[in-house]
Amino acid sequence: MKGLILSGGKGTRLLPLTYRRAKQLIPVANEPVLFRVIRAIRDAGITDIGIVIGDTGAEIREAVGDGSRWGVKITYIEQSAPAGLAHAVKESLHFLGDERFVMFLGDNVIQGGISPLIQQFANSNWNSQIVLKRVPNPQQFGVAELNGDGSIKRLVEKPKNPPSDLALVGIYMFDHHIREAVHAIRPSFRGELEITDAIQWLVEHGYAVHPYVHEGWWIDTGKMADMLSANDHVLEELVPRVEGTIDEASKIDPRVTVEKGAQIINSTVRGPTIIGENTQIVNSYIGPFTSIYHNVIVENSEIEHTIVLEHCRIINVGTRIQDSLIGRNAYITQSDRKPKSINLNLGDYSQIDLV
Fold first, then answer.
1. Are 228 and 149 in contact (CB under 8 A)?
2. Distance linking the first and last C-alpha atoms of the chain
3. CA 2 to CA 22: how far, in whole Å?
4. pTM value?
5. Which helix (H) or strand (E) is 281 found in, with range?
6. Which domains does the chain possess?
7. Which residue numbers in the chain have pLDDT < 70?
């Protein structure tokens, strides 16, 4: 089998973080989501992986490289336009050939990996397998309606009146018959070639499409709240390790990961939390469910339930920062000057909540 990761898209729901960065490269528990997807496919025994890229392709190429760090071979596929998931498959057919493949959206995070699913599909006569998850807001996803025997009755993309609460979660497996489907369908009302329409075509033409309902957690990391939720789940799965240094004045929870080169000085860190490489935590409090990436300085400040990206400086902030996502190279500080005021230098689409 081959792997196909869809890593295009502009990530508009994560602006301003994605103004100059691919959304798939934003880290969860200090690992870019795209890297986690590559590992999941590799761990399922698939080493030949294509990555579909768009406007952020150059950054993804630079970050991922040839895949050798994961023991896989990466082929980049430039999508000519963001015209839907089935369009991405259509433009990847030269890479896929007639082999079976798994397609994984590069900004999705799922509990437990996909190895059992790949094994199940590989040992079956199914033409396709789709992963479903019950969600409270199915109108925002592709939705599957099942027959009484559990087989697929129909699929519909982002319906106003969903026929069920079973959403397609962005993991699909196909054999070569998907080639016929993506050529047969027509653009939807959104002007895109929908993967739901391609799967529906398979169903209507008598091909075996097996639905698998995932019982664990799954998150589409499209919005800030989703990123924080994914970070929470992944932090709870981490096996803690300490590779940096912690001085005697600091108090560290056993669920804290301290990566190499990091320094914890006269601080309290409660887990699950991860402190990135060459990051300094000085005279500060870092609360649970916080991921602080590489080369960050936190001094005389408090942070909780937050993702902090690389090269940030958070110094002398008297109010606890929480439930936040702080982008690269941000500088946050607070002075004692009178009269008190707020000075802001913000990029496009920034959001500040003062409480």
1. no
2. 52
3. 23
4. 0.88
5. strand 280-282
6. 2-234 (3.90.550.10), 239-333 (2.160.10.10)
7. 9-21, 221-222, 338-355
